[in-house]
Amino acid sequence: MVEPVAWKNLPDTSTPLTAETLLQQQQWVLEQRAAAEDSAAAAAASAAEAAAPADDQVAGLIGAPGSATRTQLDTLFIPRDLRGTYAARPAAATVPPGTIYYPTDIPEQYRSDGSTWTVVGSGGNELGHAETAATFTTTSLTAVDIPGLSVTFVAGERPVVARFTGLMWNTAAGVLARACIVIGSTVYRNIGGSGTDSRSYESSVTIRGLTPGASYTVKVQMLSVSAGTAGTGAATPGSQSSLQVVTA
After folding, report:
1. For the chain, what is the largest distance between any 2 Cα atoms, rounded to a whole number of angstroms?
2. pLDDT band at residue 73, thresholds of 50, 70 and 90?
C-alpha cells in the first residue's frame, strides 16, 4: 500500500506535480475505497447473522444427524428428562443420547441412544384394576360380560399381564362354569370353574403384540358350559372378584 502524498504549496518543489505523483495518489484513494467497502460488507453480514432467529443459528451449527459437527456437539449436550404423551415422543435421533422420556399416559420410561428409544426399568406397573363384591350368575351358553370386571388402559412397549381372581361355581352337578379373559373379540384365557361347590380361582395371561400408545379394554366374561347356572362371587354376596392389568 502506498502512502498518501504530503502536498505543499508552490513555489516549494519538494512535492512535484507530476504524472507519477498523481498516479500514486490515485492508487491510495482506490485502496481506501476498497477497504471501506470490505468493512461495510463485513458489518452487513454481522448484522444479518445477529438478526437471524436463534433456532436457525443452532440448526446451521448442528447440521444433519450423523455429521461430524453434530457428533462433536452431541458430546457437549447434556441429556435431559422429557415428558408428554407416548404419541408426542420425539424421534430418538433428535435428542441427546441418554435423554429419558416419561410418557404421561403409560407407566414406562424410555432412553435414547441417539438413534433408538429403548424401554428401561422393570415391569409390574399397574395399568388398571377392577373389582366387584356382587354375585353374578348366568345360564347363557355363550360368554357374557361380568359387570364391574372391565379395565381400559393405554398399551406401552412391554407386554401386559391380565389376572382374574374370584369364586366360581355351577348349580348343575358335574357341569363347569367358565370365565374368559378377553380383549375385543379375542379370548386370551379360558378358566374352567368347579361344579356345585364354590371354589376360588386365580388365573393370568401374558398378552403380547399390542400397539404402543393405543387404548384397549380387558373384560372378564362368563358362560355355563352345557347346563345349569354358572356364577362368580359367592352364593352369599361378600366375596370379591377382581381383574388386574400390569406391565410384564
Report:
1. 142
2. low
> What is the number of structural domains in the chain?
2
pLDDT tens, position by position, 128-170: 999 998 899 999 999 999 999 999 999 999 999 999 999 898 9
Residues 146 and 212 in one domain: yes
Distances (CA, A) of 63 to 46, 73, 75, 95: 21, 10, 15, 14
Contact 214, 96 (CB under 8 A): no
- Residue ending a domain, choose from 103, 120, 137: 120
Residue 188's domain is classified under what CATH number? Answer: 2.60.120.760
Q: Residue 53 has which C-alpha cell?
A: 432467529
| Whole-prediction pTM | 0.65
Q: How far is it, in rounded angstroms, from Cα 139 to Cα 159?
A: 34
pLDDT of residue 239: 75
How many other C-beta atoms lie within 10 A of the C-beta of residue 220? 30
C-alpha cell at 174: 358335574
Q: Are residues 72 and 131 in the same domain?
A: no
* 164 and 100 assigned to the same domain: no
Beginning with the edge strand found earlier in the chain, give each strand of the sheet holding 186-192 in spatial order: 144-154, 215-224, 177-183, 186-192
94 and 154 share one domain: no
Q: What residue numbers bound the domain in which 161 lies?
A: 126-247
> What does the DSSP 8-state code read for residue 89?
P
